[in-house]
Amino acid sequence: MLARHAEDMFWAGRYLERAEDTARMVRATLLSTVAESPAQALHRMHDLTRTLRLEAPAPAEGAQTIAESLTSSPPMLRSQAGLDIDVQAAATRLVCSSAVAGSVVFCIGRARENFRSLRDQIPSELWEEINRFHLQLGHADFPGAMEQDPFRTLDSIRVSCQTLNGVLSTSMARGEAYRFLALGQNLERSLMTCRLIQARYPEMDGSSYDEMALTLRSVSALEAYQRTMHSSPLASDVARFLLLSDAFPRSVLFCLRLSESHVGSMAANGQPPPLRRLGQLRSGLEFADFDEMATDLPTHLRALETGVREAADLVGDHFFRNAEAFTLHSQAVKPGAPS
Amino acid sequence: MSVPGFFDEAADSSGRAREHYRTVQEWFDRLTPAQVSGLEEQRNESFRRQGITFTVYGGEEGTERTWPMDLFPRIIDASEWAVLERGLTQRITALNRFLDDIYAGEQAAVHEGIVPRRLITSSSGFEREAMNVSVPLGARCLVAGIDLVRGADGVYRVLEDNLRNPSGISYVIENRAAMTKLLPAVFSDMAVRSVDHYGRSLLRALRSVAPPACGDDPTVAVLTPGIFNSAYFEHAFLARSMGVELVEGRDLVVDDHVVAMRTTQGLERVDVIYRRIDDHFLDPVVFNPHSTLGVPGLMAATRAGTVTIANSVGNGVGDDKAVYAYVPELIRFYLGEEPIIPNADTYLLWEPDQRAEVLERLDELVVKPVAESGGYGIVIGPTATDAELAEAREKIVADPRNWIAQEVVGLSTLPAWAGDHFASRHIDLRPFVLCGEQAEVIPGGLTRVALREGSLIVNSSQGGGSKDTWVLGNPDPAAAPS
Description:
The structure holds two protein chains of two kinds.
Chain A: H1 3-33, H2 38-51, H3 66-72, H4 85-96, H5 104-116, H6 124-138, H7 142-148, H8 150-171, H9 176-200, H10 209-217, H11 222-229, H12 235-244, H13 252-266, H14 273-286, H15 290-295, H16 297-320, H17 326-330
Helix pairs in contact in A: 1-2, 1-4, 1-5, 1-8, 1-9, 1-10, 2-3, 2-4, 2-9, 4-7, 5-6, 6-8, 7-8, 9-13, 9-16, 13-14, 14-16
Chain B: H1 22-29, H2 33-50, E1 53-56, E2 63-66, E3 69-76, H3 78-104, H4 108-111, H5 117-121, E4 143-150, E5 156-162, H6 169-182, H7 184-189, H8 198-208, E6 220-223, H9 232-242, E7 245-247, E8 252-255, E9 258-263, E10 266-269, E11 272-275, H10 298-304, E12 308-310, H11 316-319, H12 321-324, H13 327-335, E13 346-348, H14 352-360, E14 365-369, E15 379-380, H15 386-398, E16 403-407, E17 413-417, E18 422-430, E19 432-435, E20 439-441, E21 446-450, E22 464-471
Parallel strand pairs in B: 3-22, 6-7, 6-11, 11-12
Antiparallel strand pairs in B: 1-2, 4-5, 4-19, 8-9, 9-10, 13-16, 14-15, 14-16, 17-18, 18-21, 19-20, 21-22
């Protein structure tokens, strides 16, 4: 497969995953703010923005800072959907603003651009679905719908993402194109889960069901967690589940295992650097003593995030830029060389 | 409904539907305007969802529009098609012989005085870089699109040859796919010949011109300028339907006269390149040094015979509109046959006598620049303003070699949907011919239609649309063309 196409596939996978995860996290956060004071709610949105590694949104004209609102406790300004107006604005930005790199609209636009240059590589059904999704998000009414009924809108985004994943898994041959896409998705997913734990771990004090539920809902893990961990509200149990679950498809370990197997199946021979790095990360988690990890979880999580990003870079060096050295050489070919 | 003075494809002089149009005409007669509009909406929605669009340059820069396909199909019956098929094969065979004679042969057509030498050397499509570069099977034009029109007398004539990068075949196939979904009932009543196999035929043709040394499993790639090109949709379509890689210049490298593409597993050799980039952008070493679309060293590799480029470099000399006037002679010269499909009457403006006559009758003729395609630069005398005619006159006098004039050919008409009713609109036809080991004409081709009332300009870049083109199978297998 062409290196350029592989790279486009990889990034299409990352953008798709990012869009879906962002929609889930925004939905979970909005849900948790419904019964909260405006200041608390806004604080949560800021936490979310940090989790997504995005700049905190600029406060709207005339809006109070968080500190001000905490002391003055003004009357709550409600949006059409009944949410605090600043919270609503921040959520709308994270979903609908094409100027925010990482918003759902931005990510789907990028994924579509990538797929557009891959038209010969992907099934027509996949192209039609992403095109339909893109047109839906680009429709003039879309930000309005997000204002009016954010939960329904976010649900429809999730369903569109899942439809895309369904088309992918049922119509794409398991060749390199599919594997690079799935690799991008799984690496992005592991990063998002990792960041979520980082942001949410200090907030869970073991007594609040709501805090636990918000964390788990952000990655659609609440139901799976309740079944396997019997709703333990302990922060360490939540973190253990999201990091190490063998069975939950959004746990960091689960994603790294899949990533490793995709890279392994594409490595022609031996152990190229990205495979080694992924293997180290995976075995580091697989054989970890979680109780020991829990004594300094933030440090471990930061190292893990860095490790995954390095692995992604190594994938690029090994598969996408392996023939770069030839560029200079080829330009030395002179015209009219003897045949 | 017919337009006086033009050939009506669907109805005879008494206004009755012609035999091969009867089923379709009756079917459309039964539809209410609301039903037709409903079908149109369905079609637009489907094209938009699939991203079947083209880009219009100029105006609002790079506007993407959905592909305009009219619902009323063009139908060609089996016996009529058999003649066209033979005529097209004859023409492209002669043109390939001519191109190979000029670039890799003895230039017999020049020595025998069939074509003046200065006509060749003054053609902007003539490439010295292609001299003495031989092409397997002499198939310099592997994919041709030959534009046909049908005058008031009902005779098909060749309007122009496209031997460089003819586009439109993807729309032929997408039109058919859309029509099959929109009007399934009509298809079941008629034996319409399939066009779906184009990708397979193209791949076979491309593989047949692979350098002999590369073995029996040559690697083919489609070379595109990239996603911003107006025909990118088609490039991707072709790569997908052949199951080969769609490469850009930056994906290819030339090392020791061998072309390779950068893959996830390192460099992989490429044997045949179906390029959809113009000659001048192919290789910055010998052509436009500022081109970033091409591949440095590609021409040297071609000359070394390690890779075949299709269509070949320099084919522009064959579809130069001044050379066009000589094609009937070339057919007689190379094949010893009479042309089956005639040319439109053409005047060469570098011949003083012809020029004088043309300048006198400028308001009755069509004037075309010789090296353009896509309908750009054409002046249609009867509809042009005085200022446009004066400008054309000035340009012709300044550079007569760059222009030809033709009698206005009354493009035949077919019903097309005009918002609330069907009305006669002018059409032409671009059949596609593949010339690998043997020539293959894809049944039908792209019928283009001028959607504006009275307009004779069918190019999609200038407000034209298209129609699905049905070639009917022969009901009598014994009489089927071989």
